[in-house]
Amino acid sequence: MSDYIIGIDIGSFNICAAAGKLDKYGKMQIMGITSSECNGVKKGVVVDIDSTSESIKKCIYELERMIDIKIQGAYIALPGGLSELMQSKGIVAVSSEDGEVTENDVKRVLKAAKIITIPSDKEVIGVIAQQYIIDGYDKIKDPIGMSGVRLEVDAQVILAQSTIVNNLFKSVNKAGIKVMGLVFEPMAISKVVLKEEEIQRGVILVDMGADSVNIYDYEGGKINDINTIGLGGNTITNDISVCLKVPISCAEKLKKKYGAVGYFNKDKSSKIEVNSGYNGKTHIDYNILVEVIEARVEELLLMINNKLKFLKNYENISEIVIVGGGISQIKGIEEFSRKILEKPVRIGSPNYIGASSPIYAVVAGIVEDAASSMKVKHENKINEYEDNNKKSYENWTEASTREKENYENSGFVSKIKEFFTDFF
């Protein structure tokens, strides 16, 4: 069985796939990452299973070539904009006779928190524990090993429409890949671009997609709110295409290569030669290009700012972190965003070699989230390995004298000594 952890981010413009592996210290490393274009997803929802499946196949094939293994299973993400959070509470009695909370008790109380009334077209995707309570004492993060009679949990239950989840699964399965698990996208991204202190203090994560923008509000160590704007980076591409009369594919390349806002869009006053289709070439004005880009970026940021103003904890927001596609890579976007949003802004990039780009935040988060659940097992293996090594060393020490005598009697050690004497 392979030790690789595979993650797939199914987006509206790109599908990204990454392979991670735990090193000997239990830290996750990205061993390979790739992406391919996708036309079968709109605003995070699969609208064409066949097209999405083909894009996944292509992406996985490239990843297989990088890591030289056959990929059979992967973890995927559920976009936060397609989800709903509900508060819930679970209560169970501690099962052990000595009153010690076990891992099984934690599983039981989380399962109890999932027992809620939900609409028939939705299903429970997962549960996020906010705090555990033992015999009335709250704010417990890890109750395992503690003593008590009654175990409670305050949790958030993640809901999603059954059809959306089923179509995601079908797209991946049709590509010949088994879905190993479903990761909640806001939690996945937060693991690789946010610090625990930020999540406690109050931070906004803005995921700039091609068709939509998801805004995640974190405070007090948990996600408080999710907001979605039904516009994204594709609107900039469309505006460039219409205003400058160039094909969509050409407009996308212009956005990525020359996109700039604020001070950075005043550096040039020149013409750009582009292919207008059918081997024809045309020249466009650089200043017009950046004016179109800046106007749409400003509009999107103003829409984000309006959403933020309605948040209860708006005054407590310490920072805004932007991840996602082309908008996060536009020159000058940080300074430009600070002026409009009136908050500190930074671009969130995963701290992994080969994956340190905001476009890989989701897929790196998927792999990290899956890896975190394996770290405990990994640490147990290390402890077991060290214990076995210690026992082996003790056994070897006890037997070393006897073995040495046997080797010397057979002439093995003396022959080695003669070999090194002659060699040097």
From TrEMBL:
<keyword id="KW-0131">Cell cycle</keyword>
<dbReference type="Pfam" id="PF02491">
    <property type="entry name" value="SHS2_FTSA"/>
</dbReference>
<dbReference type="InterPro" id="IPR043129">
    <property type="entry name" value="ATPase_NBD"/>
</dbReference>
<keyword id="KW-0132">Cell division</keyword>
<dbReference type="Pfam" id="PF14450">
    <property type="entry name" value="FtsA"/>
</dbReference>
<dbReference type="GO" id="GO:0043093">
    <property type="term" value="P:FtsZ-dependent cytokinesis"/>
</dbReference>
<comment type="function">
    <text>Cell division protein that is involved in the assembly of the Z ring. May serve as a membrane anchor for the Z ring.</text>
</comment>
<dbReference type="InterPro" id="IPR003494">
    <property type="entry name" value="SHS2_FtsA"/>
</dbReference>
<dbReference type="GO" id="GO:0032153">
    <property type="term" value="C:cell division site"/>
</dbReference>
<feature type="domain" description="SHS2">
    <location>
        <begin position="5"/>
        <end position="193"/>
    </location>
</feature>
<comment type="subunit">
    <text>Self-interacts. Interacts with FtsZ.</text>
</comment>
<feature type="coiled-coil region">
    <location>
        <begin position="368"/>
        <end position="395"/>
    </location>
</feature>
<keyword id="KW-1003">Cell membrane</keyword>
<dbReference type="GO" id="GO:0009898">
    <property type="term" value="C:cytoplasmic side of plasma membrane"/>
</dbReference>
<dbReference type="InterPro" id="IPR020823">
    <property type="entry name" value="Cell_div_FtsA"/>
</dbReference>
<dbReference type="InterPro" id="IPR050696">
    <property type="entry name" value="FtsA/MreB"/>
</dbReference>
<keyword id="KW-0472">Membrane</keyword>
<protein>
    <recommendedName>
        <fullName>Cell division protein FtsA</fullName>
    </recommendedName>
</protein>
<comment type="similarity">
    <text>Belongs to the FtsA/MreB family.</text>
</comment>
<keyword id="KW-0175">Coiled coil</keyword>
